[in-house]
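thread: overnight batch results

M.L. [08:02]
morning all. the overnight job finished for the chain we discussed friday. pasting input first so we're all looking at the same thing
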Amino acid sequence: MRSFLSLLVLVPALCIGPAVQAWTLQGQVVSVVSGDTLRIRDERKVQHTVRLAGVDAPEKFQAYGQRSLDSLRELAFQRYVTVEGVGSGSPRVGRVRVEGRDISMEQLQLGAVWYDRSRAQSLPETERQAYAEAQADAKLRRVGLWRDKQPIPPWEYRAGRRK
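M.L. [08:03]
and the structure it wrote out:
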């Protein structure tokens, strides 16, 4: 009977799976990989690749790809950042802040990236809404990649290259 009760407790716990783990990382940006990806060196001199939560940047050879990278470099390169994320994986996906400023939001306001719902799951609903509004405003003002009449989202560009 005791082993049966133990199973009743153990089986649901195993089915739930590992809890989603929140994490925080602080360090200096040592490299800007793309308009939405950074390499950060922490205080132990370990490098971490981090993708900005909620956004997707144009690919390197896509229209506006280099400008998006340059924009992120200007905002974050060699600066100290705090990153908050949820879950695991590589690269990590998190909310990156420089001096309290949300870098994803700044990239959106500059028209350097697209808001991407699939990369915004860990963000609170209010921030997801603010990101969508920032993109709509940049589009309305025709700044950055929104100067093009029909900019191609990076996920469509990548899908086209795979065909």
